Amino acid sequence: MIPDRTPVGRGVYHATAEVAKGAHVPNFQKYKELYLQSIQNPEEFWGKIAKEYYWKTPNTGSFLDYNFDVTKGNIYIKWLEGATTNLCYNVLDRNVNEKKLGDKIAYYWEGNEPGDCMQVTYKGLLQQVCKFANVLRAQGVKKGDRISIYMPMMIELVVAMLACARIGVIHSIVFAGFSSESLCERILDSHCSILITADGFFRGDKFVNLKQIADEALRKCRERNYTVGKCIVAKHLGLTEDTLIDEASTCPQSPAAKRSCYNLQAPWNADVDIWWHELMKDASDECEPEWCDAEDPLFILYTSGSTGKPKGVQHTVGGYLLYTATTFKYVFDYKPDDVYWCTADIGWITGHSYLAYGPLANGATSVMFEGLPTYPCVSRFWEIIDKYKVTTFYTAPTAIRLLMKYGEEPVKRFSRESLKILGTVGEPINPEAWLWYYNVVGNRRCPIMDTFWQTETGGHMMTPLPAAIPLKPGSATFPFFGVVPAILNESGEELEGEAEGYLVFKRPWPSIMRTLYGNHERFESTYFKKFPGYFVTGDGCRRDGDGYYWITGRIDDMLNVSGHLLSTAEVESALLEDAAVAEAAVVSHPHPVKGECLYCFVTLRDGHEFTKTLVAELKAKVREKIGPIATPDYIQNAPGLPKTRSGKIMRRVLRHIARNERDLGDTSTLADETVIEELFSNRCRTL
């Protein structure tokens, strides 16, 4: 339950008067009042918010109906049953026609190279979406069909996903860094009839021949007796002027001019491949939307599974619209003149919810970035913030820790005066990185929204609100409206007060996933079987004496050392307090006496050497911070860590390396597989 008052004193950070002025939720009491309304009368709370959006017909069935208990039958969740709407209409037509935002910038697009930029208005985006929706209809797709989108961070990616939403087609976006096998696997699982891709792109100074990878995926599909009808290819390298999204508002140095020197020829199959720009040339820019039931599927997004087979998380139209729009508005305290930047790729859920649907539903102006934070220099983030006068900046702890390695000077080279709100996403942020982000990037005046959520939840679950909730570095603080968390022990008993255990949720929120595509049985067993009556997140959590929640990491990343449950995140945080350590990852290792012991991988900052003295120093620091039981048995030098392309450390791989097990399972999501051999070779030098 939410406490009556918030803590004060050392280690607690309160909003400045400037942040509190005009905030949607100005103080903790207002937060608590709204939170209690949302859980005591969800129909009234969410019904009032629903009236802000367009519904072709109101809901005729139950506003909310669900079953979380597998012992009582099939799991199901239904919000606004019987209501019909169209998500694309709500994020574009409503903003252009009703709110008169047609001339407002929807996206500033910033490419891989500085100066490679364009912008698109809401009116321009609507026109392009309608044109491409008509293109898809002309290809024979209809409501309920699935389309796979495999594109870099280009405006056409947003156009494609919104065009799907406009005609009731289910989009399955595959991150453009995935391999041909990963793309093939996802196409096969969701039975996609069309693939939308691009010719290629640069990530830093590395060229990615995306069309070639897509061709390889389609070949693998054919070998498995499945044929994709058409492959629509957008020109990204060697663009021509008629492919620009909003020519009237394009920057003088256009992508066409910048990229024309590449003049790359994409591999071509005339029976399958069609150029995007050729299809768009004669398409109408008017397209009647398909009116969908609130519970109709909107998209499928694949996430890693413990078995190695990705899970196709399925989200629906109505509830997802309500929740992403509402969380965006309140968590980032959005105002109409804000410029918002989420650095996530749209291939991940963060990009879906907080670069596309959530911001657009609020009529926001966003920055969409194709490049890397360190290319061509380590000041790229801060340069872009100044360029577009970004007010809200949302990124991953991995990126923050990466940039910390280069010190304060690259940050302070730019003013960042426009910043008002900072945010983090993807994993728990360690206090040291939190403080650097707060003190250096935010100049001690920008609150940090440390958001906990998952692909499965669709939107923020545990999060501060900028003016309302005092911050504790590393804590996700309290639940968002409508979210009812609980902490359970291994026996499934709810723990009260200060406690640590399994994080679960007791009732549905509007954007909760409805199923796993084509496998409802796996959906039930993965998320509801362990603790009947609860949605199981798979994460561990600690609640402190002030009622604040601290995410401790995946349950499979927790260790049981001599009967004591230890959080890997807690040990990693202790290691990161040492000035020599840039990154750390901790996994379990078999021990003949303890059962499990701690095996630590550490990446050092520039200028530091891995020595026996440093290892002893790190062990002492962990012992001092947590206790003797947490003293690591192994600390290994790790010049690099195995990460997904979204920046998450793959601890499953590290556990295999720690045990010297070469069968690593699926590594297709690794950003850089070369680190694996180096880590294996370093095992023999573990001190």
Structure description:
This protein has 687 residues and is of the alpha/beta class. The chain has three domains: 17-82 and 466-552, Luciferase, Domain 3 (Luciferase, domain 3), CATH 2.30.38.10; 86-372, Rossmann fold (3-Layer(aba) Sandwich); 562-685, GMP Synthetase, Chain A, domain 3, CATH 3.30.300. The protein contains 21 helices and 30 strands. The strands form eight sheets. An eight-stranded mixed sheet has the order 12-11-8-6-7-14-15-23, sandwiched between helices. Strand 4 and strand 5 form a beta hairpin. The longest helix has 17 residues, at 122-138. The radius of gyration is 24 Å and the shape is globular. It starts with 16 loop residues before the first helix and ends in a 5-residue tail after the last helix. Residues 239-258 have low confidence and may be disordered.
Total helices: the number is: 21
- Strand arrangement within the widest β-sheet reads 12-11-8-6-7-14-15-23
Please mark out the parts with pLDDT under 50 across 5 or more consecutive residues, or reply none: 239-258
Please indicate the percent range of residues in DSSP E strands (runs of 2 or more): 15-25%
Helix content: 25-40%
Overall number of structural domains? 3
According to CATH, the fold-level topology of the largest domain is Rossmann fold
The top-level CATH class of the largest domain is: Alpha Beta
- The CATH architecture of the largest domain comes to 3-Layer(aba) Sandwich
> For the record, what is the CATH homologous superfamily label of the largest domain?
ANL, N-terminal domain
What is the overall silhouette?
A: globular
Distance between the termini: 46 Å
Structural class: alpha/beta
Largest sheet: 8 strands, mixed
Mean pLDDT: 91
Radius of gyration, in Å, reads 24 Å
